[in-house]
Amino acid sequence: MKPFFRRNSMLLISLLVLIALFAFAGRGMGSKDFVITMLRGLSVGAVTFLVASGFSLIFGLLDVLNLAQGTLYMIGAYIGWTMYIRPDTFMDLVPLLALMVSGFALNGVWNIVVGHIHLNPKVQRIIPWTLIALSLALFAIILPKYPIAIWDLNNYAQSPVTYSFMADQGTRLPVTPAVFSQISPFLAFGGLLLASMLFAFAVSLFGHAAQAQGRLKVKNFVPLAIVLIVAMVGYVFNNTLTNFFLGMDTTVLFLISVLVAALSGAALGGLMETVLIRPLYSRPIYQLMLTIGLSAIGVQIVQAIWGRNEFIMPKPSLFAGSGGACPASSLASWLQNHCSTIWLLGGRVRVYDEIFIPLVGIIVLIAVWILLKRTRLGMVIRAGVQDREMVEALGINVRRVFTMVFALGVGLATFGGSLAAPSTGLSNAMGESLLLSALIALAIGGLTSYPGAALGSLLVGFIQQFIIKYGQIGIPIPFTDIVFKPSPPIVPASTVLLMVIVLLILPHGLLGKKE
User: Fold this and answer.
1) Helix (H, G, I), strand (E, B) or coil at 268
2) Is the pLDDT of residue 259 over 90?
3) pTM, whole model, 2 decimals?
4) H or E segment at 107?
């Protein structure tokens, strides 16, 4: 076996060249500007990493290019905003969404039931579509009558823009609780439960040949019981929980909103894999078309619910302090006054953007690395990447592992969206731009490499912020009086140029491996 340095000579040379370039770039600015630029690069890299790492995990195990990852990042931001600014709307949605997915909580039951059914092939093709049609008809009847307290896009004073602005000023606009008036709760809940079960059973019938034989057990019904408990608690204690969340300190409520966005993303990812991706594992082109279509649909859904306008998400109180004691001069001063900025090497640093987000990114990097390297699930995931058939032969439910990995990848994207929202604001285009950065980062670091996703994201963040900074201070051209200031279009072009250079030298990326 060749020594490490000989086997990775091109990688080491490339990394040394990149380090030298960043060091050279730092010589053109003061220490204050250099540190702030590096921190901003870390912040951008951390958010990019959350999307890129999820993409890398999904592609590494499932061989699925999830091009909806950017849209899911955007959806996570809007889910987090809803929980943070309008918890009453979110609590109204909890029973509705729980009942709409309740049928899929019985997947284990449907697999066993369908495994014992022997249908004529013609009948087998007709029944699933009939059940889906009945399910959609029930949803179409019930959903328009289901009460949800929500904003009004046609009234600017009641739009998300105004709710965000008033919350940023420390005031919450009054809201009117939603009540059942057009349909009784019993009929609504029963109809939604039946519609969800019909739809989930129909999906199971499509995979009739692959269903498992076995007997029904009590544990097969536990997921449904949990979902129904969540729905009933959300309905019975709706106003109590809403008032509880509204009375919270915004820092605690923000942390809850980030957690809700991540869990919602994981649930959505699991549903996507089970219903849409699973039948297409042998059709990669259809996977691409499907995820692109889901991306477009997701953008349209966001526009229909939250509108097309861009708006802010107020920072939590821990990072929003202002006044005579701010910017903070030390960590103790920041803890006392919760200043939004702090002095560092003579420059003002935004605590949330340049300190908190990179710290969270590092924590997620370590946590997922431990999951992949030090747990049984991680061992199964890594084994599945190498040889799926062998893992299945050992009696491991690879299908369930696939669902968990897809859920984790989507959950990381929605987590990143909710985390970045107070820094970048919310817009319909926020997912597209970040997906491009994430794909470039993966190409630089290695498409299926988790450490490569982290390294590539950092490089993308750094080069973007250095170009932005030099666009402000300019780059002196040697032996001339010309000062070159990069224009904004050069910022994305610089990352593409870096990607091209890296791939010309290392076709599999900095940390990628030959297939």
Assistant:
1) helix
2) yes
3) 0.89
4) helix 107-115
Indicate if the pLDDT at residue 1 is higher than 50: no
Look at residue 385 and give its three-state secondary structure.
helix
From residue 178, alpha-carbon distances to 79, 144, 151, 232 in Å are: 19, 13, 12, 16
Q: Provide the b/e sequence for 16-25 (b: ≥16 CB within 10 Å).
A: eebeeebeeb
Highest average pLDDT, of 87-91, 112-116, 124-128, comes from: 87-91
Q: pLDDT tens digits for 308-348? A: 999 999 999 888 877 777 888 878 888 888 888 888 877 78
Cα dist. 398→76, 109, 277 in Å? Answer: 27, 18, 14
Q: How many percent of the chain have pLDDT more than 90?
A: 42
Q: Cα–Cα distance between 352 and 131 in angstroms, integer?
A: 49
Six-digit token string for 470: 């030099």
Percent of the chain exceeding pLDDT 70 equals 90
Work out whether the CA dihedral 342, 346, 348, 354 comes out positive or negative: negative
Determine contact, residues 363/415, Cβ cutoff 8 Å: no
Domain boundaries of the chain, sorted by first residue: 4-116+147-182+213-505
